[in-house]
Amino acid sequence: MSNRPAGHVARSTVRPNSETGRRGPIRTFLRTADGIPIESVYDPPPAVYETPSDAPDTPSSPSRDLVFVIAHGFTGDVDRPHLRRVADVLRGYGAVVTFSFRGHGRSGGRSTVGDKEVLDLAAAVEWARGLGHPRVATVGFSMGGSVVLRHAALYGGTDAVVSVSAPARWYYRGTAPMRRLHWLVTRPEGRLVGRYGLRTRIHHRDWDPVPLSPVQSVPRIAPTPLLIVHGDRDGYFPLDHPRMLAEAAGDHGELWVEPGMGHAEHAADDALMARIGAWVVRAAG
Asked: May I ask which residue range the UniProt record assigns to the signal sequence (predicted)?
């Protein structure tokens, strides 16, 4: 196990931006507290003239002190088109850090499907702050949505949290997509499909101990502003999941049930992401 702290930059490529006076995009590997290399990308906010004038709810200029740290869903990675699209929209509101969870993309290790991934997010948040952004908002989708809730409960230190299409409780098998996902994770042949078909390397060990669940995490997040977003056509987690999370959040949480929306970053269109970006700008001060 590495003794280097979470957020250690193993390698990076920096391109100065003469127009904005800020560094350009950075692609690097971070080292988590348990020694896993995590591929990460930093995109600074665009110059004012780069911000599309017709983008919904886009501020006149993006915030220079705010950074969004985006946590993708299971089988995603930093270069998936849907994640890049989400990052591009949120760049209208601040800088953006994206990364591949362990076992995904070019990151090391194997996926624990929401358990040790909290260490990956912690490394990305620490790196974001180290780049000079005093305000950090985490935005997670599906598995990443559960991770941002657990991270905020266990680590604190974020200024706003957005959880999209997240489960409220573990081991849910009430829908056909979730039964397929459990086969993928728990069966040796499923893990082979994950590795070679979905570019996701899945750990064979069960959770021990079982991590704090999303719904148990939510009350610990207060007073950090929390937004819970869920589609009413989500094929993975029905509406009792976001309602359970919202009830646990009480007055410090806000729930958006989106008509016609499916699951996670694939279903979160640009207009929704723009509304989320505007909410974060307000909520994070």
From this structure: none
pTM score of the predicted model: 0.88
**Antiparallel, parallel or unpaired: β 37-43 and 95-99:** antiparallel
Bridge pairing between strands 135-141 and 226-231: unpaired
pLDDT exceeds 50 at position 6: no
- For residue 58, what pLDDT band results from cuts at 50, 70 and 90? low
Print the SS3 string covering the chain. Answer: CCCCCCCEEEECCEEECCCCCCEEEEEEEEECCCCCEEEEEEECCCCHHHCCCCCCCCCCCCCCCEEEEEECCCCCCCCCHHHHHHHHHHCCCCEEEEECCCCECCCCCCECCCCCHHHHHHHHHHHHHHCCCCEEEEEEECHHHHHHHHHHHHCCCCCEEEEECCCCCCCCCCCHHHHHHHHHHHCHHHHHHHHHHCCECECCCCCCCCCCCHHHHHHHCCCCCEEEEEECCCCCCCCHHHHHHHHHHHHHEEEEEECCCCCHHHHCCHHHHHHHHHHHHHHCC
Whether the predicted pLDDT of 63 surpasses 80: no
| Distance of alpha carbon 242 from alpha carbon 213, whole angstroms | 13
Residue 32 contacts residue 80 (beta carbons within 8 Å) = no
